[in-house]
Structure formats: C-alpha cells, structure tokens
Design goal:
Blueprint: H1 3-13, E1 25-31, E2 34-35, E3 41-44, E4 50-54, E5 64-71, E6 75-85, H2 113-129, E7 136-138, E8 148-153, E9 158-161, E10 168-170, H3 179-193, E11 203-208, E12 215-219, E13 224-228, E14 231-234, E15 239-243, E16 246-250, H4 260-273, E17 278-284, H5 290-295, E18 299-306, H6 309-321, E19 326-330, H7 333-336, E20 347-350, H8 359-365, E21 372-377, H9 380-390, E22 394-402, E23 412-419
Parallel strand pairs: 4-6, 7-22, 17-18, 17-20, 18-19, 20-21
Antiparallel strand pairs: 1-5, 2-3, 3-4, 5-6, 8-9, 8-11, 9-10, 11-12, 12-13, 13-14, 15-16, 21-23, 22-23
Helix pairs in contact: 2-9
The structure holds S-adenosylmethionine (SAM).
Length: 421
Amino acid sequence: MNRKAESSSRKAKLPPAYRNSPTRTEAWSGPIERLAWGGMGVGRSEDGRLLLLEAPLALFPGEVVEAKVLWKARHGEGRVTRWLTRDPRRAAAACPVAEACGGCELWEAGSHGSELKRQMVADLLRRQLGEGVPWTWHPAPASARRHRIQLHWDGAALGYFQRHSHALVPVRACPAAADPLSEAIPRLQEALAGRALPARASRWELSTGTPAQTVWATDERGRTWQLEPDGWHRSTEPIPHQLGRTPLLHEPGAFFQVSPPWAAEAFGGLLSSWNLKGGTVYDLYGGVGLFSLLLDDRFQHRVLVESGEAAVAWARRNLEAAGLPSECLVADVAAWVPEGLGAAGDLILLDPPRAGLEPALCDRLGTAGARTLVLVGCDGAAFCRDLKRLGAAWDLDQLAVVDLFPLTSHVECVALMTRRP
Ligand SMILES: C[S@@+](CC[C@H](N)C(=O)[O-])C[C@H]1O[C@@H](n2cnc3c(N)ncnc32)[C@H](O)[C@@H]1O
C-alpha cells in the first residue's frame, strides 16, 4: 500500500469525531486527572481525547489549569499557562531562577516531589507492564545533591540553558548542587570574565568528589582545572570518591553518577538485600567499576565490559586497589556478549545508556548460562521495553525504582530477573 492510501485507510478506521481533525493551537481549561511519565499532567478534551500538559515547577493531580494546546488527530499536547486552582501542598521554589531554568522541574512540589514521582512511575509501570506488577519506591534523602553540573558561558554570563531552548539563564548559585559546586559558580564566572580560564570554551562541567570538597572545572575539550583558594590551577588529578568503604577514582568530565553518595547507598542497599553472590559477575556497561566495587567480594571474579578506554583504565585501577580480581575489557557490549554467557552461579549486570539494550542483545541474553540478571535503566520507557524483551527467557523477581535525580522527573529503575530453566 502506498503512503497516501495507507494514511486514508488509517483515517477511515478513526472514530468520526477524530477524522480530519485539524492540527491547531487552542486554549483549554480543566482539571489535571493524573500524572503521566515525564511529569506530564493528563487532561481530557470534551470529546474524550487525551491531553498531555507540561508545566514548569510541577503539577498536582486535581489542580484546575488553563493551557495552550496543540490538537493532533487522537490527542493534544500543551503547556499550562495559568492555574485556576492550586493544590495547597504547592510550595514556593527555593531557587530564584526555577521557572526559567531547564535544570529542575519539581521545585514547587516541595517535600511532595517524591510522592508525585511515585505516581508518575506507577502510571508508567501500569501501562507498560500491566496491573499488579509489584515494585518498591526508594525516595531520595534530603541530603542528595548533584556532584556534577553542566554550565554554559556565552562570553558575558555563565548559567544553565532555559527549558527547551539554548537561551542562557545566568546563575550565581545552584541549590540543587552540592555546596562547594554552587559556591564555585561565581569563581568560574570571574575566571572566565577575567580570561584566567579559556573564555572561548562555551560548555563547562563543574564536578566534585565524595565527600564534596575540592571542585574541578572541565571545558568542552576535556581540559581540567582545580579550584584552590588563589584561583583555578591546571590539573590532571582524578576525582576521588569514598562511597561507604569503597574508594573509587575517575577522570573529571567523564561519566559518573550525578549524586554518588546517594547512588552508592541506594544501589548498594538493593544489591545486598537481594543477596547476590556467586562465581563471576559480568559488569556490562561497567564505567569505572561502581557496581563491581559495590558487590565487593560477594563474587569470586568480575568481567567488566565498557566502551570508554579511559573508564576501563580507571576501572582496572579501582578494582585492583580494592583487591578484586577482574578482567576489564574495552568493547561494545552488544558485539561482545556471546551466546550462552556465564554459568549457573554467575550474575549478568547491565547498566546501559538511556537508549537501553539492542533487541539482538536481549535475544542473545536469552541463551545465557547465568541464571541471574540485574538490569539498571535511567529511562523508564526504554527500561520497560527491555524488561518485556528479556521476559521471553527471564522472570522478573524484583523491581525497584530509585529517585536518583531529585527535583527532576527522572528516576533509575533496577530489576532482578531469573532465567527460566
Ligand atoms: C549509564 S552508564 C553506567 C556506568 C556504570 N555502570 C556506573 O554506574 O558508573 C553507561 C556506560 O556505558 C558505556 N557505554 C555506552 N555504550 C556502550 C556500548 N555500546 N558498549 C559498552 N559500553 C558502552 C558508557 O561509556 C557509560 O560508561
């Protein structure tokens, strides 16, 4: 069928009210029924079409709002422009640029942010995995702060990008970041304005270790400076983290958990409550070795696979320093995983980037010799898709969702699965 014929056959199947529905922006007002994945509020048109609404700084179910909506054939998408009723739990944002800045979405949810996120996750899991799949919710402690922030310099001001835009929102502090990082923002601004640091660089990452003390600034070329009382000094030092009894080093500017102490506490707690131990752990998408280190000596051996060469070099050093025998390999996980990976007492742990697992990799994992698998994912929708693909050969035993990214609508999902015989 050609595309035109396909489109008219699709239209013919639509209920009459939706046929020839124009695509146009309209004003809408009504109640928020519930929260959907990504923090969107769900409303409904008079003819029953679903409406997904975005709002800066949180929406509470039950609030009545006005919005600008772009109607599509089957649903509408829009942005809240005014609140007609506000939930009494709504709090004043503790950040002066909260409304414009694209870094946080839940400031006005105040102490109820965790509950709103739990509702968003419940909605996603119910739709993706069906009713009645048990899961646990792990709210962030009040102490969780970002140990890594990305700032932009436009030649005159330093700040974050506005929501959905590359327009700069200048900032002098960031209450979502660990104190030393927040306090380093004006120091970076001064150094860039005074040309003590290369002012041509437009993207800067500020990072700190655990506990949060020393601050590093890394430019878009990977050059790093350490902040000292008299200013910024070129540095080739790694960033140190002491996570419980686990020491770990990584390069500034490289991938690492945004809130390392909270991530280590949450992941470490789950791995030990699931009582994982045995022969070999395959730490796939292993980064600098966080999961292998958290599992400590509960496995006899570790094979870490990661595509970043520098990360693998740090993983080798981190695991060696912890006295944990391991092989650390630079490879693409999807190409590396063989048919029949592992033996009965082994664990396959996968922590892929946001896009999740390739379909062929899920199929190959279905032939694994290992009987236990842990899947970690920071994009809930991709994670559910992968759980369903893996479900052909693996049973879901435990599902935990962790609020690793407070003040945003992002979460980390962790599943424990057992291979069906
Ligand atoms: C979400 S991070 C997890 C890192 C580590 N598990 C941690 O918690 O610190 C994903 C990691 O996968 C690596 N990566 C991305 N694509 C990859 C691929 N195709 N094969 C192997 N590693 C990959 C990235 O470099 C990154 O270190």
